[in-house]
Structure formats: C-alpha cells, structure tokens
Automatic annotation (TrEMBL), chain A:
InterPro entries: AAA+_ATPase, ABC_carbohydrate_import_ATPase, ABC_transporter-like_ATP-bd, ABC_transporter-like_CS, P-loop_NTPase. Belongs to the ABC transporter superfamily. It comes from Fulvimarina uroteuthidis. GO terms for molecular function: ATP binding. Residues 22-257, 269-510 form the ABC transporter domain. The lineage of its organism: Bacteria, Pseudomonadati, Pseudomonadota, Alphaproteobacteria, Hyphomicrobiales. It comes from the Bacteria. It holds the Pfam family ABC_tran. This is Sugar ABC transporter ATP-binding protein. Keywords: ATP-binding, Cell membrane, Membrane, Nucleotide-binding, Repeat, Sugar transport, Translocase, Transport.
From TrEMBL, chains B, C:
The chain crosses the membrane at residues 21-41, 53-73, 85-103, 109-131, 138-157, 177-200, 232-250, 262-279, 286-303, 309-328. It is a multi-pass membrane protein. Keywords: Cell membrane, Membrane, Transmembrane, Transmembrane helix. InterPro entries: ABC_transp_permease. This is ABC transporter permease. Pfam families: BPD_transp_2 (PF02653).
Amino acid sequence: MITAPAPGGPRATTGERTAPIIEARGVRKSFGPVEVLHGIDFALRPGEVHALVGENGAGKSTLMKCLTGYQPVTGGEIWLRGEPVRFSSSDEAERAGVVLIHQEFNLAEQLSAEANIFLGRELKKGVFLDWKTMRRRASELLDELATPIDTRRPVSSLSVSQKQMVEIAKALARDARVLVMDEPTAVLTSREAEVLFEQISRLKAEGVVILYTSHKLDEIVRIADEVTVLRDGSFISNRPASKTSTDTMARDMVGRELSDLFPPKGEPRRLAPALEVERFSVPGHARDISFKLAKGEVLGFAGLVGAGRTELMEGIMGLRESAGTIRVNGDPIRVASPRDAVRHGLSYLTEDRKGRGLLLEYGMRENLTLLGLDRFSKIFVDEAAERKALDTAVERFDIRGASREGRVGNLSGGNQQKLLLAKTMLVDPDIVILDEPTRGIDIGTKQQIYRFIHDLAEEGRAVIVISSEMSEVIGLCHRVVVMRSGRLAGELTGAEITEEAIVRRAMGLHSEPLEEVA
Amino acid sequence: MSSAETRPSTPREKHGRRLDFHVWGPVIALVALVLFGMSLNDQFLSSGNVTNVLARSAFIGIIAVGATFVITIGGLDLSVGSMSAFLAGVTIIVLNALVPVLGIGWGSILVGMVACLLLGLAAGFVNGILITVGRIEAFIVTLGTLGIFRSLVIWLADGGTLSLNFELREVYRPVYYGGMAGIAWPIIVFALVAIVGEIVMRKTAYGRHAAAIGSNDQVARYSAIPVERVRLVTYMLQGMLVGIATIMYVPRLGSASSTTGLLWELEAIAAVIIGGTVLKGGFGRVWGTVVGVLILSLIDNILNLTDLVSPYLNGAIQGVIIILAVVLQRGRKGAA
Amino acid sequence: MSSAETRPSTPREKHGRRLDFHVWGPVIALVALVLFGMSLNDQFLSSGNVTNVLARSAFIGIIAVGATFVITIGGLDLSVGSMSAFLAGVTIIVLNALVPVLGIGWGSILVGMVACLLLGLAAGFVNGILITVGRIEAFIVTLGTLGIFRSLVIWLADGGTLSLNFELREVYRPVYYGGMAGIAWPIIVFALVAIVGEIVMRKTAYGRHAAAIGSNDQVARYSAIPVERVRLVTYMLQGMLVGIATIMYVPRLGSASSTTGLLWELEAIAAVIIGGTVLKGGFGRVWGTVVGVLILSLIDNILNLTDLVSPYLNGAIQGVIIILAVVLQRGRKGAA
Amino acid sequence: LAAGLALPGVAGAQDGETTTIGVSIPAATHGWTGGVNFHAQEAIDSLEETYPNLDFVLATAGDPGKQVSDVEDMMATRDIDALVILPFESDPLTGPVKRVADAGKFVTVVDRGLAQEGIEDLYVAGDNTAFGRVAGEYFKERMPDGGKIVVLRGIPTTIDNERVEAFQAAIEGSGVEIVGMEHGDWNRDKAFEVMQDFLSKNAEIDAVWASDDDMALGAIEAINQSGREADMWVLGGAGMKQMIERVKSGDAMVPADVTYPPAMIATAIRLTAARFVSNAPMEGRFIIDSVLVTPENADQYYYPDSPF
Ligand SMILES: Nc1ncnc2c1ncn2[C@@H]1O[C@H](COP(=O)(O)OP(=O)(O)OP(=O)(O)O)[C@@H](O)[C@H]1O
Ligand SMILES: Nc1ncnc2c1ncn2[C@@H]1O[C@H](COP(=O)(O)OP(=O)(O)OP(=O)(O)O)[C@@H](O)[C@H]1O
Ligand SMILES: [Mg+2]
Ligand SMILES: [Mg+2]
C-alpha cells in the first residue's frame, strides 16, 4: 500500500501529530537542463529519527543538500519551524541549527582532525585560538565515537572510517537541532556503526531531530521512527518504521519485488590455486600473512577497521612496500608496481573511491578506461571504442547519471561506486580483489553486484572480497579469512562462517595456531 | 584541489558557460590584438612583419608546448630559459670545435644539432630525476638548475659572449632566416611541434596519463599508471623541446651570453596559462598555449608599431594586456 | 591533492619520519652553512658580519613572511619585488616633496612611512581584488602587476635613479643603520614581523582559515569561512609587509631605480619553500621561512667571503645549495 | 658606399617629406643605461621640436633577442631611413644591423662596436679599454708604493671584461694588489652588499675600484657604515651627477671619477639627424674618450639637470 502525498504537506492525516520542525514543500531541483527532484514533500518532527531511503541517484543527497543550504532549490520551499526559509549558504543553515554530515568527505586533508572539527567555528581566547579547549573537546567527541586518534594528526593520514568519524564529530561540535546524516555508516564497520547509533539515541533523547540515510536497510528498521522512500526524484511512500520492513522498503525503492539478496553459493569447484600468498608483510600494517585462493572461489576478508586488510591487498598490488612471495597459477611473480600486478591478471577495487578511485574532475569515459587504457590505445586512444566500452559498462552495472558528459564528481555516490567497479573489471582480471565493493550501493544494485561476483567465480575467476558488512561476507564467500591488527586471526569455511565466529576472531577472543590457516 | 570545484554554483551550468569563455577567451583576445595592430599600422599585416612575429614566437612557443605538459602533470620548470642559454653555449662551442674537424658545412652543423638535442634531453633528465627519485619540489629543483645552467654559460663564456664561427654562421643562417614555400623554418617547426603536441595531449595514452597525474596522482597510481616514469619523461620532453628551440635560436643571434633566454621561463608559463591550462595541473591545452605565445609576442610587436607610449611604460602595457587576455576566461580559473 | 599522500609507505611510520626531517631539514642545512662559513673565515661570526647578513635578510625576510601566507592559501605573488621598487620610488618622491612643507625632520619621514604603508596596502588590494572578484589566476595577475609596478618606477625615475633629499636622508639613515641595544633596527623589525607572523599562522583563526583555503577551498567555503575575504586580506597583508620592508630599505641607499627589488619575488618564494611551506598551499610555516631566508643570504655572504670558486659560478653554487637544503626534507614533499 | 647611399636620405629631407630615424637602445636595467635612456629621449624631443620633418622611433630592449626584434620591426613596419643603435651585445646584433645597412639605411652604431668592421656608416664610441686603462693608471699614480684594493665588476659581459682586463694591464707591475674581485652587476644594492663582505673579509683595504658610479655609491655607503671612511678612497666611473659633485667638492673619499658619458647616445642621434637635415657628410668614427675627472676639471662634466 503506497500512500501518495496529499497536497499541501505530507500525509493529510498528520493532524494529530506534533508540528514539523523542518519541511520540504514541493521541492524541485534541477542541474542545468536535468531535473533530479520532482516536487518532494516531507516533514521532520521533534524527537524523531527519520530515515530517507532510495536507490542510487534517487535524490537523497540532493534533497539533503537542499534542506541544509548547500544547494538552492529550483522550485518549492523549505519551511523551518513553521516559516518558509531560504538558506543562502550552509552557514546560514548551521546558524539555524540545521547541520549536514556529508556522504562524500568534506574535510581539509592537510589540517589536523581538531582543526577540521572546529573549522569556521573556532573557539577563541581573545584574538587567539583556544587550543586547549578545542583539543579537549575534539578528543572528547572522538572518544565518544570510540575513535581514539591523536587529534593533531593530519586528516590525510586517517583511514576512511576514521575520516567519517571526524566528519561526524565535526557535525556534533556544531550543536545541531536538526542533524542530517548522509550515509554515515557506509564506511563504518558494524562495531563502529553501533557506536554511532548510541550517539544517535543520545541526541534523540536531547530532542535533536535526525534525518538519516543509508543503504543498510536493517539499520533503518532498528533506529528509525519514520521511513520515507524516494525513487527517481519523486516521493514514493512514508511510513512509521514500526509498520514497515526491509522487504517493503526494498520494494518501494526499486518498484518491484526483490528475490533473495544472495545467489546460492554452491560448493566451490576446488580448482587449481590461482593466487598463493606466503609470509607476506606490509611494514606497519600486516605481518607475515599466508593464504591461498583457488580459481572459482570467493574468499572473504573480515576484520575490524585498521585490521590492515586494505594495506595487505595494496601490498599485494604493489601499491605499498612489502615483503614475501606471491604465486599466480603456481609460478612466483615479482610485483614492483600496480602495473606488474595488472599484467599478472590481478585487479583491485579501492575502498577510497574519492581519494584513490576516480578523477572527480573528469567524465565517465576517461575514468572508466584509465586503468586499462593500453587496451584502447595503439598509438592513439580509440575514443569510439572507449564510448562503446562505456555503453556496455553503463548497461552492465546500471550506472545512472544525469548525463554522460559531466564530471563524475556530480554522480551520486552509489553510481560513482558502480563506475569504479566497472573500471576495475575493464582489464578483465583473473584475480579480482574487491575492497568494500558495495559501499554506498543500494539494495537493488547490491543484489546485481552479488550476482555479478557469483558469476565471476562461476567463470572460474578468483575473487577476494574485503567487507565490513557481515551479511555480505557470510552470504557471499566460500571461505573467510579474519584479520586482526595486521595478523591472521583465523579462517572459516562453509558452515563455520557465522557472524559470531568471525567477530570472536576479529576481536581476538578466539585464537588458533597459524598452521591451520596457511 | 582542482580549481573547477571552487565555485558553489551548479557545475553543469558552469561547465557550459565555462567552456565557451574558456575556449574562446584567448582567441578573442588574440583577434582583438590583431585588429588593434591593423588599425595602428598598415604594415602590420605585411608578410614581412607577420613572418617576423611568428618566427620569433617560435622559441618561446616550442618551449611553452613543453611547459604545457609539465604544468599539466602538476609540475613546473623554471630552468628552461637558462637551460636554453646553456645549450646554445655548448652547441656553439661544439660547432666551433668541429670546424677544424668537419670543416665549414652541414656536417658540422648536423652534429651540433644532435649534440644540442641530446644535451637538452640530459638536462631534462637531471631535472626529472631530482624531482621524481629525489622527491624535491619541482619549483626548488628547477630554480636550482636555473641558477646552475645560467652560471655555467657565464663561466663557459668567461663572463663574455660565446660567438659562433662566422663562416659557419653563414651556412647555418638559413635555419632561422630561410624557409620553405615562403614560410620561415622556425614557423614550420613551431607549427609541427604544436600540432604534434596537441595530438599527443588529446589522443595518446601518455597525454591522458599526464592529465590524470596532475588531477590526482593517487588515483593515477591506483590506476596502474607509472606515475614517476611519466613525470620523468615529461621533464625530458621539456628538455628536448628546449633543445629544438635552441637549434632554431643559435643561427638567429650566432652567440650565447649571460642574457640569452633571460626570463623565458616566465614568458613560457604565462603563455601556457593565458592559453587556459590550469596552473595546478590536471588540464592542459596545447593550442591554447600557442595562442598565448602569439598574444605575448604581438604585444611587443604592437608596442613597436607606434610611439603612443613612453618606452618606459612598455612593461605596464604588457602587464595590463596579459591580465585582460585572461579576464576573458574568468569563469574557469580557481583564483587563489 | 595533499602531497603528504603521495607515498605508498605506511602513514603512521611516514608521519613520524617525515615530521622529524621536515621540521629539522632546513635547520640542519642552516647549521651546516654556518659551520662551513666559520671554517672558511674567522671574520664570519664577527658581530659586524652577522649584523650585515641579518640586516640584509630583513627586506626579503619581511616580504617572505607575507609570501608564506599567500602561498599557504594556495596563491602566489610575483609582484612583490617590483612593488617594493614602486613603493620606494613613490615614498622618495613624497619625502622630497614634503621637505619644503614639513622641513627636514621626523615629521616628514613619518608621513612618508605612512604613505609607503598605505600604498603597499593599496597595491596588495589591487592584486587581491583582481584575484578574488576578478577570479583571475594569481600567477597572471601578479605577473601583470609585476610588469606594471616595475615600469611605473622606471617612468617615475625617467629611466634613471630617484634619490632621496640628502639632508632628509641623514635624518632617516638610523632607521637602517641605527639600532637598539646593539641590534640594528632592520633585524629587530624582521624579528618582530616573523614572531607575529608565526603566532598569527599558528594561533589565530585567520591562520587556520588560510591553511584550510589552501588545502581545499570548497571545504573552507562549506565551513562558513569567508574565503574571498580571507584571500583579499592575505594579499593586502603581503602588500603591507612589502611596505614595511620598503620603509627599511629606503634609508639604506636613499634611492630607487629600475634595479630595486629585482627578482626579490623569486628569492622570497624560494625562502618560503625551503622553509617547508607547501607550494600548492594548505600548510605554511613562518619560522621555516625565516630559516630559508637566512640560508639564502648566508650563501651570498659565504661566496663573497671566499675566493674558492670563480665568481662566474656563484649562481651554480647557490642552485646546488638550495637543492641540497631541500633534499633534507624530501620525505615530505609530493614531487610533481 | 656610405656616401653613395647618403643621397636618398638627403633628397628625402630636402623635399620636405619626413625622415624616420630608428633608435634602439638597451632598457634602463642599471644606472648607466638609465642615463642613456634619458639622453636619448631628450635628444629626440628637442630634435623633433626643431625639425618637424624628422620622425624618431625609440625602442628599448631588455636582452639582445628583444633588440633584434625591435630592429626587425623598425625595418618591417616603420620603414626607417636611418638606425641609431647601442647594441646590447656586439655579436648577436652584428647580423641584423648588417642587414639594415645592406638595405641601404644609414647606420650609426654607438658605444659597442659590431663584431664585423665596416658595417656602420657612423661610429660614436665610448672606449671601454680606455675606461679601464685610465682608472688603472690613476691607481698606479695615487699609490706609488702599492696597496691593497678591491674591485667591483659589472654584469658579466664583454664590456666588463674589456674594462677589467685593461685595468689589470694598467696596474701591472705596480705594487697595487687586488685582494678581492666580485660582480656588483652595476647595481647599487649588490655593490653595497659585496662591499660589506669585502670589508669584513679584509682588515686592510686602501682603495676601491667600483668601475661604475652606481656601484661606487653603494660601496661608499658600506664603507661609511663600517666607519672606515678614512682608510680608503673609491674610484667609480661614468660621470654620474652625484659623483661629479663629490669630486668637485674635493671629497677625500671620491678624489676622482672616470667619464663614460651616457650622453654619447645624444651625440650620435644629433650627428645622425644632422646627416639628414644638413648635407654635412657624417661618416667615420667618433671616439668619446674616457677622461679622468678631478676637482680641477670637474665643472665641465657636471650636468645638474640630468637624472643620471
Ligand atoms: N552537482 C550536480 N550536477 C549535476 N547532477 C547532479 C549533481 N548532484 C547530483 N546530481 C545528479 O542528481 C541525481 C541524484 O543524486 P543524489 O546524489 O541525490 O543521489 P542519491 O540518492 O544520494 O544516490 P546515492 O544513494 O548513490 O548517494 C543523480 O542522478 C546525480 O547524477
Ligand atoms: N589505530 C590506527 N591508528 C592510525 N591509523 C590507523 C589506525 N587504524 C587504521 N588506520 C589507518 O587506516 C588504514 C587502515 O585502516 P583500514 O580501515 O583501511 O583497515 P582495513 O582492515 O582495510 O579496514 P577497512 O578496510 O574495513 O576500513 C591505514 O591507512 C591507517 O593509516
Ligand atoms: Mg547520496
Ligand atoms: Mg580498508
């Protein structure tokens, strides 16, 4: 039962409910010729956690930016506490207590975490900065978020998940009355997410209104009071969380029934090992790791943030200094640079799409072919072939952009991720390493991607999936390697792969001798 | 950060507007200058004057094409001017030394040319290695080599002037003053370099890689681009182009001294940026650079066409025109 | 891109190592130079020589402090050298004009100083407005104003030299040659400017905003920082510091000419980068700049105190030392 | 040759149509060239004043390449009848100026001779060798029983070399010993700093050859600062106003000066103009010798209204 929006405000039946704090009334937004929001109505009420869900490119971030003054609406109105407002800048919105936590990081890389948290809102003693207080508040905030990092470290040296926590701390420091969170958990492990949820309930108790979006629907069910679904820039439905389920949401989002998320695993046809890694180390991040990967197998890597999974893979790809032996199809290879790795049939999808994955200034075509450019150039780059490749990729990964030409920086987060995946697969590798492959991807597409990974294995390719989403690891992988602070903490196969088992190892509550692993 | 992001206005709109102005800005400025020149002096479009202007643009022009690539990868080369003085000096020494051996003739000159090119490559290699392997800011490295090349030429010339053997100069002269089908050689070479440069930038993997590195070298690394090698190659390319420019330059003045190629680096960089290449890297446009070079040397030429202003103020006029030329593409640049 | 990211090595370790070298590199270089100087000439540490070197450094030094801020916001100011020549010229004209009015005395001089400062602010304002409101690349704007200021001073001086009224000069002299507690004024002023600069950079919101803008001006804008205003203020600050430097400079030789402040811009920028400030912006360090300035003027001093090398090669030695000074902090820089 | 070519120019001037004279000089990059600029400008203004049918084209160049361009432009766009040029450097300009001469234009070369004989019709020259020699001889004479001196050289150029070599040749054999020699680039600031360092380096300096008045002024400041005015004297060169003043007033520190008048450009321009307005056949060489200015003859070399 999809309830259409009644004119003059969301749900005519809202009479009995408390007056909204902030409202969108027929909000329209166009970028140049393209309209991406077609008259959205919806309202945030005191003391509620309101979830906004929708496919990639549905317009969630755009709507949030309109609400928080980052982007001017091109139609309709924003109402704050019963009056129409026109935020000319995010600053104005923040002064009115409306704060956005960006989906894409919004931090100055060279500045310290502390500087970023208080940027533009520095505390002062007279003319001077009040270092002490700011440092203290910063570490307090980060401690509350269970991210005990040195607040003087430049943000550039933090991990994606740590950056996300800094971003959240920055918003918390601006004592918001309306806090808008755009996929805050996309780059967090479940444990970190828990920490965030605690904060959310605390804020809720303090009467802060929270607008929240995520593609992890189970989260939504847990923390949200209200759920609004968008599809292709239009309002679809609005229900109390108590009256909805992940399936209903998914259906509203995609507009069709979703069969079960994960394809049947099937026994891995134990073929010859494609990749063997022995006593492999990445200074400072991973020590003396050994594992095997068979053709047609999906191997999961689980672990907490900072476990060093990313670094390990980057080492294997020749992106970091490393020591140890790597064998591909039995013969040892020397990987001095990513180029070597690619030549030996490896390909890696980075977890940091903005910083290391895509050239935000360039278009889809240039980005898609950047990794495999040799394939498109004899002497000259064959642009026609590139375009064809782009068409195929857009088709295959269902990349939705308002236009083909614009900067990929303007693509929605999820669609950027899909483009990145397409880029990684374009070199048609035998061994695929996917680091957080479904980060920020909507449930419909997730399903496609899982199927896609499954097919890769079926084709006899070897796949490694690093994921902080348990369900993903469990639902997708034939075998799971658990890492803990740079070392192997165990390996699980088939039926052993349970959330409980993984977490125990990840947290070091369960230790087993290395032999079993190697 | 790339400057294209610096406006909050909605990118695509901006993109559109930017494109127009960005593409046509320099051209409009150039046309305006030409019209102004015509209005001032009827000799302005005489083949003689046009040839002069184009031919003398060739040196800076050829060098600026290299600078376009260097700047596109997010680098900088301040040493080009004194590098060219150094190359000219050594080439002249080599040529003079060759006279007794190979005699007065093309033999000697060809050997000299090759020497000049190789030395240029070597000089670029030095810059490149220090920047990539040595991991030193390009600004510092090339500021250093600027001083080094400059004083090497002074030293070679004993503080004076190195001059090319006179008979040999007569043989060599046509390389600058001669031409083909009525077009002077420097113009032909400049045109070729520019066209090839434009193609390399637009159509080759190398050009794409250069832009990627300038735009975000991390992404480039993760895309299996041999970042350091591309950088090194780019600085060597710059060196080689300085070599080509010098080959054209030697027959023009037949000498090298402490003042040869003075401040060419500034002119080259200015031309590149007037042409619409982004100083912080990530986007380069060779043909724009060509327009930039023409604008710069037209300014000098026009100032010689009339006695409108006291020669003391030439510098001021140049300054004003340079700024005006860029105002036309304001939409684009991220100011800083 | 933050250059800190460009190495594959592990962040944490790197962070540590980098810090050390990055912080101490310039200092080590400076100490090495001093030791070298001592070993060459026993006069090197004589109070006379030390005073000379420090006092000379003051002009470039004061200007370079401003350049540190300009570069930190991701900008560039090439006009400082000729700006200071222009300021010197106008100040001298003003002072000479004041003699009949206010007579020979501090009255005139104070007025002249104020004029110099205001004009500096104005000049900086012009640069700033063109860059922020005009949205033109800082490189182009300041290259343009470089030419403009330079030829204005030549024009004012009729190509020659503007000299300060002789008696007035006698009154003014102490500002450069005099001092307090045995320390020359220029040194004192330089020290003050440097200290204040360091504090502003580290301890004020302005300093932090400057770094944020240089690091990512979009983020800065979203963080409610008045980006354009901060930029404008920074260029005006630079102008004012050029003014202060000029106030110290005029009494030294009591003249201004086409050669005044020639290439100071390069020296200033070099000092800033040797000091560890990142050319692409986002991170600035004033005390590092001071070290950089001292390194540069020590090189000249040492070269003059010894006859080790042919004077022709001075430039080469400078180049080599500049590069070496930076090699020491290689861990840090993202080469390009 | 020159005589033959002279005719059209004369004719031109006589039947009242205007004669264009191109003047190409180095930009004012230091004091002396500044003087050249001033005198050139002045001569041109007064001549255009008196002879309406004379038209001048003045171009200043910052480096030889630019000067070549200027000459090319004058030929291509201003069709000059005569060229007065003070070559930035002899070698690079030789070819281009030769082409002007070959095109039948009247060529006057000033100060720096071209690398080939017989190109110019008129040569108005300063004598750099003499400049160095006169200075050297003065030192020899002032220091009969020798002494320690330091030398500030100009911008590394042929001119500077000629001067310094002549100077060294002149003091050859005398007891005058050069204890320090550095480039002051004809620049007051540079000279000031170099002199400061010479002073801290050498406890004993009896005299300074600054080889240029701009540098001399810088050096004098440095000496004053060190408080060693009494110990040494300074010989500059070129005949700058302030320096001549000091010589006139018998300043012990500036006992003399050697002329190298930038006004020679004015002379050259006037002579060239005369070539067209009167039929006076102006050919050959005018060497403007470098003379020693002493308190006795200082008055003749003092031009109060010159900025130089
Ligand atoms: N600045 C922009 N210029 C042009 N198009 C834009 C811009 N920002 C967003 N878009 C387009 O608007 C549409 C909605 O984008 P938005 O980021 O709101 O999607 P989303 O719901 O946040 O998706 P995701 O879940 O992947 O983050 C997309 O098609 C995107 O390409
Ligand atoms: N405790 C820590 N202290 C400092 N840096 C850390 C810490 N934990 C992680 N990092 C940074 O984060 C990165 C490693 O964390 P990362 O999260 O990438 O590991 P991971 O095992 O890949 O986990 P995930 O991929 O799930 O984020 C490195 O870049 C490192 O600099
Ligand atoms: Mg989004
Ligand atoms: Mg990771």
